Amino acid sequence: MSASIQDAIMLLGDSLTQGGWEAHGFAQRLAFAYNRKLDVINRGMSGYNTEWIIPVFEQCFATQNEQQHVPKVRLLTIWLGANDAATEGTPQYVPLPAYSANLAKLVRTVTDSASAHYSPVTRILLLTPPPVNTHQWAAHRAEQNQTLDRNFEKTRTYAQAVRDVGKQVGVPVVDLWTALWDACGHVEEQLSEYLSDGLHLTDRGYAIVFDEIMKSVSENYPELHYDKLPPVFELWDKINLENPLSSLSKRDIFSSA
């Protein structure tokens, strides 16, 4: 592995993940928090559902043979469902049973020892889709001369499916649906504080995503919290001034894990 490369956090998802690179997005917040410790790889694919993301993931995530030569993914977040829960008959719609099966397949791609992509060092978090503000989204769609293609209650069932899959495969779930629903006081119209158009997140929405992810990391994978990890390269005030090179070698921050 190159001395300039760190291990990583991989974010897999749809536009909500892709948008995590926006100013104050959750990916940007993670990159700042884990600066010099873990790189953040964003594999958010706008518009994608779980059917389409599976072949992408199989190409993005290293095989067992490749893992010997590339940075290890220490944390993987899987955040899909906003598109799968679209209205039946639309291109992005995935039936609920297939959605659940696809999520389980994504997890087992990494956790099953028989998988070509098996990675025992990777810890996984499943994220639920957030609630949708159909009032905002209907107005947004109308501006584009399109009809409403999301349903509040349907999205709730897809969020529940993520919780169920998490229990089934033994992976922690970051319940963003509940976190955002509680934040808006259980009033759909007030989701506009956290959703820019009824579906995608604002700065305040992404702040909740980051906080909920870190809360789950603290509870389930405390060894991966940024406060528990040293930098890959020594801090400047720890450098041996008489022999700087002796202090400037890359270190494996997981060597004792």
UniProtKB/TrEMBL annotation:
PROSITE patterns: LIPASE_GDSL_SER. Pfam families: Lipase_GDSL_2 (PF13472). InterPro entries: Iah1-like (IPR045136), Lipase_GDSL_AS (IPR008265), SGNH_hydro (IPR013830), SGNH_hydro_sf (IPR036514). Residues 11-208 form the SGNH hydrolase-type esterase domain. One of its GO terms (biological process) is lipid metabolic process. It comes from the Eukaryota. GO terms for molecular function: lipase activity. CDD domains: Isoamyl_acetate_hydrolase_like (cd01838). This is SGNH hydrolase-type esterase domain-containing protein.
